[in-house]
Amino acid sequence: MRKLIVIPARYGSKRFPGKPLALLEGKTLLQRTWEIANYVKSRVDDCDAVVATETPSEETRSDLIIDFCNSQNIPIVVTSNQAQSGSDRVWEVALQANVRPEIIVNLQGDLPTCPPTFILDLMTALEKTPSNSVASVFVQLSWHALDALRKSKLQSPFSGTTVVVNANNRALWFSKQIIPAIRNEEKWRETSDMSPVRRHIGLYAYRYEALQFFAQSPKSQYERLEQLEQLRFLENGYTIQMVEGIYPPGYDAVTSGVDSPEDLERVAKIIRENGELLDFYA
């Protein structure tokens, strides 16, 4: 089954301009994310990986990303400036592929601490269950991690997404708010070390047809409000299969994605204290 990992990378991020090329302990975010994709590619049959960026202009400054990828021998595809989301950009890359991929992974370029096992598990979720069209990852937060998420949202309210799931780990809803609300929280804390909150990791795998639907459909109501593209699937009756992810020791789900300079420093501290992510999978 043909697989393609696409890493969307925009230089002109509104919240964090130049984010893909921001340095994190001596490497850019994009370099670190590429190394994760390349690790998976080397261990999966019939799998390719590329970076996708916008057509260069004075506004996008995507030429800086193109130059960086060329200097590092990282395959890159230049897409239009019309893409409204990372998934739209991924769709453009899938359309340009010489051989149509059956499973496409959207690995955002700001996930430098994404364990490669997450990607492998998403591929498996689609390969083994034909009824699954979209798959993504969550991590169950400890009470300590939930407290840290709440604290981080005081500085960056729209960084960090949570998800609630049904009994089969299919997504019911996603939000930038922390869901579910917890009444009598102190009693819940006494019964378990883990909170009932699941942190969504912005990593997706799609079947070709599901990604095609997304790219050809207008933004949905709650997608526009929350600015969460996965809500387009839920609002149109698609199911999203969630897979529970486990981080290696010392790595923290609260800083899985880098949305702000503050996130960058938190991730840097994790790397300094616990070592490089891919060393856990050597």
Overview of the structural elements:
The structure is a single chain. With 282 residues, the protein is α/β, with parallel strands linked by helices. It is 35% helix and 23% strand. The chain has helices at residues 29-41, 62-71, 86-96, 116-128, 143-155, 185-191, 208-215, 221-226, 231-235, 261-274; strands at residues 3-8, 23-24, 27-28, 47-54, 76-79, 103-107, 134-142, 161-165, 171-175, 194-207, 240-244. Strands 1, 4, 5, 6, 7, 8, 9, 10 and 11 form a nine-stranded mixed beta sheet that branches. Strands 2-3 form a two-stranded antiparallel ribbon. A hairpin with a 2-residue loop joins strand 2 (23-24) and strand 3. Helix 1 (29-41) packs across helix 4 (116-128) and helix 3 packs across helix 7. The longest helix has 14 residues, at 261-274. The protein starts with a strand and ends in an 8-residue tail after the last helix. The mean pLDDT is 92.
Number of helices: 10
Low-confidence stretches: none
Largest sheet: 9 strands, mixed
Helix content: 25-40%
Overall average pLDDT: 92
Number of strands: 11
The dominant shape is globular
Q: Which structural class do the helices and strands define?
A: alpha/beta
* Strand content range: 15-25%
Q: What is the first-to-last residue Cα distance?
A: 25 Å
Rg (C-alpha, Å): 18 Å
Order of helices and strands: EEEHEHEHEHEHEEHEHHHEH
Quick summary:
The chain is an alpha/beta fold.
